[in-house]
Amino acid sequence: MAVETSPAPSPAAGSARDLRKRRRRTWLSASLLLAALGAAAGTAWALLRPLPVTLAAATRGEAVDTVYASGVVEYVRQARIAPVVTAPIRQVLVTEGQAVAAGQPLAQLEDGPQAATALQLEAQAGLARAAARRIARLYAVGFAARAADEDARSQVDAAQQAARSARVRLEDYRLRAPFAGQVLRREAEPGDLAAAGVPLFVVAVPGALRVTAGVDERDVGRLAVGREAVIRADAFPGQVFASRIAEITPQGDATGRVFRARLSLDPATVLRPGMTVEANLVIARRPAAILVPTPSLREGAVWIAAGGRVHRRAVTLGVQGAERTEVLAGVKVGERLVLDPPADLKDGDRIAPRPEPGR
Q: Where are the domains of the chain?
């Protein structure tokens, strides 16, 4: 029986296979090492690469410290005229826009019952006077006592006072202009029932306007009569109206916690009575203040750019505005600040400045 045999591997062939295996392991190790080095380099670059930011410089300019208030344009002298009695309106004597003199009648209410009462009391006063004259003649000739004469005189005084009061009350049924001016509003028509205390007319002196603004009680102590104010109105966008504080009411409103400030207006102003306005009452002006862009502030600090890195610096703030904010301490003029600093920005981070907006 024949048996086939394979030739035994030679020592040289085994050495070649081992060499190839070692080479594959070497290349694999080198590839893994290169991949690790690449990942590490990428991570290092991500960590060390400069952060792109936008910078802006601190400048010097005017800072204006103001108190905000909202108010209404109104006439300086204006009266709302209401009856003190409830009665039907007999006659309306004026129209809206009409000029009136001081004391001029505006409307007449139905006063028939009161007029009758006045006539009755006047008649009673006449009877009392006649009776007093008879008793006085009798007293003069000794046929009446002194006490009777004095009592008659007292009754005359009482009757005349009652008649005089009735005549005065007749004026309650006549509405008159309290001063010379113009009728701005008329809420009265003949036949309507006028209610006591409900205004029927508004009379004002035309041409003299002011703003009455409400000031928070926390700010009223910083105001003073004569200081300037700046007024804006939605009805005239982009326009600014100069004014001054003319008056500050001595007592505030405990419910709303506000005080009223009266602001003067130019007689030629285009503002109209009844318009709502916003006012900035000027407390102080500092013409050489250090100003920084408001977007550069974060949590009471700014980020200063120097030598390709940033450094956080706490600041003391003054007047704050939408675009610029006054810095009282912590920043020098010309220092460059990071706008809208990222939340993960750290002290000492490298930065790559971007062009400023508009440059």
A: 51-63+287-354, 67-77+210-285, 78-201
312-315 contacts, C-beta under 8 A, 24 or more apart = 312/347
Strand partners, 262: 212, 247
Q: Which residue type does 167 have?
A: R
Task: Give me the residues paired with residue 56 across strands.
Answer: 337
Q: What is the rounded CA–CA span in Å between residue 89 and residue 67?
A: 47
pLDDT in tens, 159-182: 999 989 989 899 999 999 999 999
Q: What is the pLDDT of residue 53?
A: 87
Between CA 89 and CA 108 the distance in angstroms is: 6
Q: Which of 89, 87, 67, 50 is nearest to 223 (CA)?
A: 67
Across the beta sheet with 201-204, what order do the strands follow? 78-81, 201-204, 181-186, 99-100
* Average pLDDT for 282-305: 91
- Distance, in Å, from the CA atom of 188 to the CA atom of 192, rounded to the nearest integer, reads 7
Percentage above 70 pLDDT, the chain: 85
Could you say which of 3.40.50.2300, 2.40.30.170, 3.40.50.970, 3.40.50.720 is the CATH number of the domain covering 67-77+210-285?
2.40.30.170
272 and 212 Cβ atoms separated by less than 8 Å? no
Q: Thinking of the domain 51-63+287-354, which architecture would CATH place it in?
A: Beta Barrel (2.40)
Average pLDDT of the segment spanning 279-306: 91
Q: Model pTM greater than 0.90? A: no
Class of domain 78-201: mainly beta
Does the structure show a pLDDT above 90 at 227? yes
What is the Cα–Cα distance from 287 to 61, expressed in whole angstroms? 6
Q: Do the Cβ atoms of 100 and 177 come closer than 8 Å? A: yes
